[in-house]
Structure formats: C-alpha cells, structure tokens
C-alpha cells in the first residue's frame, strides 16, 4: 500500500517496541511508588 519494504517495517516495529518498553517501565515505576 505505502511502498514500505520489509526493512522499513522491521525498523518501524523496532521503534514501536522500544516506545512500548519505555512506557511499560515508567508505568511500573509509578505503581511501585
């Protein structure tokens, strides 16, 4: 559809995983304190 190659999708997925990981860590810290 958008002309993204497989490498582009892997890069996008990696960024989304990093963002989700950072959000999860910060959320855990809030619940502990």
What does the model show?
- The protein has one helix at 6-32.
- It contains one helix and no strands.
- It has 33 residues and is mostly helical.
- Keywords: Membrane, Transmembrane, Transmembrane helix.
Largest sheet: none
What's the gyration radius in Å? 14 Å
Count of the domains: 1
Number of strands: 0
**What proportion of the residues form beta strands (DSSP E)?**
under 5%
Principal-axes geometry comes out as rod-shaped
Amount of helix: over 70%
Amino- and carboxy-terminal Cα gap: 45 Å
**Overall average pLDDT:** 90
Topology order in helix (H) and strand (E) letters: H
* Helix count, DSSP H or I runs of 4 or more residues: 1
Structural class: mainly alpha
Uncertain segments are none
Helix/strand layout:
Layout lengths: L5 H27 L1
Which labels suit this protein?
33 residues; 1 helix; single chain; rod-shaped
Summarize this, please?
Keywords: Membrane, Transmembrane, Transmembrane helix. With about 35 residues, this protein is mainly α.
